[in-house]
Amino acid sequence: MSFPAERTRRLRRTAALRRLVSETALSAADLIQPIFVVHGSGVRRAIASMPGVAQLSVDEVLDQEIESLREVGVSAVLLFGIPAVKDAIGSENFAEDGIVQRAIRRIRERVPQTVVMTDVCCCEYTDHGHCGVLRHDEVDNDATLEILGKVALSHAAAGADVVAPSGMMDGMVQAIRSALDDGGFSSRAILSYAVKYASAFYGPFRDAADSAPSFGDRKGYQMDPANVREALREARLDVAEGADMLMVKPALAYLDVVRAVHQATDVPLVTYNVSGEYAMVKAAAERGWLDERAVVLEALTSMRRAGASAIVTYHAKDAAGWLSADSTTP
Ligand code: PBG
């Protein structure tokens, strides 16, 4: 059959028909909201390059955020901490009363059904801003593993459901799995940022988390944007080390990688719609150059279409709100 007998437009004629044949669904349950937590009380510090995102203190301010996410059906959060003091090894990262540990305990207490995920990395905590400890101005992979194990264990002990190592150290998943198991937390899951590119799209995040490296860049540990076969290798290694879920990051410029990793593995796949992707949409929408709502829902749907089960996105709360408004319109 071909034209004029075959006409693809027939199934696009009405909204109800389009819904019926839609291949990809996006729902609030697929979204994970990143949250930046800081010391202090009553703090809601806006981030200039990420309109709508703020650093929040661990008190009513955090409670309100979790509550407003819950109202629109977003029950998963990914926590990032900004410590009081930074040092060479990032000591607050694994301190029992560290900022993330306090945030986890508060969320567990107030809204226990929340899926609490935590970023496990050193860059927000070290005074040099690199993702591990340094030796001769280079990140010492194996010395960093021991710290990552301690960080993950302290997050699990505070009540985290999922720890998400993002530093691209070799062996990080294995080190964290054994630290958790030895510490009595074999029930807690690891979401590995297995496929993380050295991307300029992380720019605004480094303002939000105050984590820009003080010298050099992250190309010695994060991946070259030119590579996709290497992504499959990273994914395979992390699954073998015990990753329960994998992440591909960034999302929009890497949907081919999302698709490739989705086809090559059988664990749930998450993609991270990063700060720079968020900032571009916000900046254009502010000028009236893009329709924010339409663009965000289109981009998130495309990530699902490429193979992501879940999406970490700064748009989570807004997108979930739009989705629930859509589902109530007749
Ligand atoms: C920390 C980390 C980064 C992001 C998530 N975890 C920054 C980096 O690697 O430089 C980026 C997130 C974003 O841009 O939204 N290692």
CATH architecture: Alpha-Beta Barrel
Please mark out the parts with pLDDT under 50 across 5 or more consecutive residues, or reply none: none
CATH superfamily: Aldolase class I
- Fraction of residues in helices? 25-40%
Tally the beta strands. Answer: 12
Derived from helix and strand composition plus strand pairing, the structural class reads: alpha/beta
Mean pLDDT: 96
The CATH C-level class name: Alpha Beta
Q: How many strands, what sense, and barrel or not for the largest sheet? A: 8 strands, parallel, barrel
Oligomerization category of the chains in this entry: single chain
How many separate helices?
11
In whole angstroms, how far apart are the ends? 35 Å
List the keywords.
330 residues, alpha/beta, TIM Barrel, 8-stranded parallel barrel, two-stranded antiparallel ribbon, 39% helix, binds ligand PBG
Describe the structure.
By secondary structure, the chain is α/β, with parallel strands linked by helices. It has a single domain (26-327), classed as Aldolase class I (TIM Barrel), CATH 3.20.20.70. The protein has eleven helices and twelve strands. Strands 1-4-5-8-9-10-11-12 form an eight-stranded parallel beta barrel, surrounded by nine helices. A two-stranded antiparallel ribbon has the order 6-7. α5 links the parallel β8 (162-165) and β9 (189-196). α4 crosses α5 (172-182). The protein is globular. The mean pLDDT is 96. Ligand PBG binds at residues 119, 121, 123, 131, 166-167, 202, 205-206, 211, 218, 274-275.
